[in-house]
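Reopening this ticket.

The earlier resolution said the output was attached, but the attachment link was broken on my side. Pasting everything inline this time so it's all in one place.
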Amino acid sequence: QVQLVESGGGLVQAGGSLRLSCAASGNILAINVMGWHRQIPGKQRELVALISDDGNTVYEDSVKGRFTISKGNAKNSVYLEMLSLEPEDTGVYYCKADRVIVLRGGDWFEDNYWGQGTQVTVSS
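Inline output:
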């Protein structure tokens, strides 16, 4: 069983910063992509940023220049550094691991996994 555990959410004033962390655990051989998505009230869940195993990154347009995704010091972990936060960034942030190679029942499988989500609230 693979688990993604997020931390670092909270309440911050506009213009402030937060850093989210996500660590994956379980019988993992490799993770091809890790990323952050968010659920803003009244909107569909959207991609915020992702980083591939070889370090390539992708960002949603509204966070470019403010958010930075990076691999964590621990294996199978990722950070999201969020600067200049805006009230529009308020939402639940979910860590996702894509194309995870896991050992299950003696065989290797590829699957995707979500974290439980962490609340980010930016006050004006």
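Reporter confirms the inline version is readable. DSSP finds no helices and eleven strands in the chain. The chain has a mean pLDDT of 96.
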